[in-house]
Structure formats: structure tokens, C-alpha cells
Amino acid sequence: MLPILPKHLADRACKLSLLGTILSSGYSLYSTYGKPRELNMHAIQSWLQSVLGAKDFIHLMFSLLLVTSQLHLKIAALPVFCRALYHVARFLRRNFSRSSFYRGYLEEPCLWVETNNTTLSLLSSNAELALGFLLIISLFSGGATSCRHSCTGTCFSNASSLTGRFSWLARLLLFMC
């Protein structure tokens, strides 16, 4: 995702962006829904039913899953990047529309981001689908859970550890990452 940086810095930047998404989504959920009124099962269940449909909850679970994973998938930062790009463009357009710097340099890119929000969400959805396939393949492969280093952006130790049926799909998805 960040080709200019060395591999260990790019992995750390990816993890930190996911941690930032966890914090911002958690704060957004807390400020919108608060915490459960009481700590009994019925109150927690009704609170969870209202929270489960929120977009921030989905981003929170997505980021939690990928931060705690031992796989180093740089494509995981793509949905986070698309969401952040949309929010930054909306913030700049709302708060700095009278600035000459904004009008000169940032108005057209921000307008493009806001008008092509569907394209960004499709890109984000495709990246999430690819991640889902990679996580399913890593579940069926034995080498992905015990590896501690990152080679080619993921944590597969070698291609022969993958099961025969999924090796071509894994190689294709790894090539896309």
C-alpha cells in the first residue's frame, strides 16, 4: 500500500491506520449510542440491536479482526483509506470552502471524491471481498497461522502449505495484494 516506505514501516503504518479506525469508530459509536443503561442481559441486548446496524460498528469489527490477525495484509488499509478520504473531503468542503488555498488546489479533488462516492465504496467492497477470501484461504492453510514474518505482504510461509484446491486462488489473490 505504501511502496515508498520500507516493509516494516509499511506494515506498522497499516496496523496504526487500523488502530486509528478502531478508536474513531469506537468513539463515534459511544457518542451516538452511548453505553447500555443497565448491565443486565436485556438492556445489553437491546443496546446491541441498535448498534449492530451502524456503519461504524462494521468498520470497528473489520479493523479489530485485521489488527488482531497475524497476517500482514496491506490491502486491508484500502477500505480504511477510502473511508478516510471521503470524510476528509467532506470536512474540507464544509469548513474551508472560503479559503483561497482550498479553492485553488483542493476544490476539484474534493468535488471528485464526493461525486464518485459510489466508486470509492465499490473499491472498498471489492477489497473487503478479497480480504475475506484471503482470510478463508488462510484458515484452510496450515502455514498461515504459525508464521511470524511477512513475505509478499502476507504471512504464508510457502505456497506448498496451501491445500491443492485453493493454491491457484491464493496465488491470484496474493498477486493482487
TrEMBL record:
This is Uncharacterized protein. Belongs to the PER33/POM33 family. Keywords: Membrane, Transmembrane, Transmembrane helix. InterPro entries: PER33/POM33_regulator, TMEM33/Pom33. One of its GO terms (cellular component) is membrane. One of its GO terms (biological process) is endoplasmic reticulum tubular network organization. It is found in: Membrane. The keyword Endoplasmic reticulum does not apply. Its main location: membrane. It comes from Hordeum vulgare subsp. vulgare (Domesticated barley). Pfam families: TMEM33_Pom33. It is a multi-pass membrane protein.
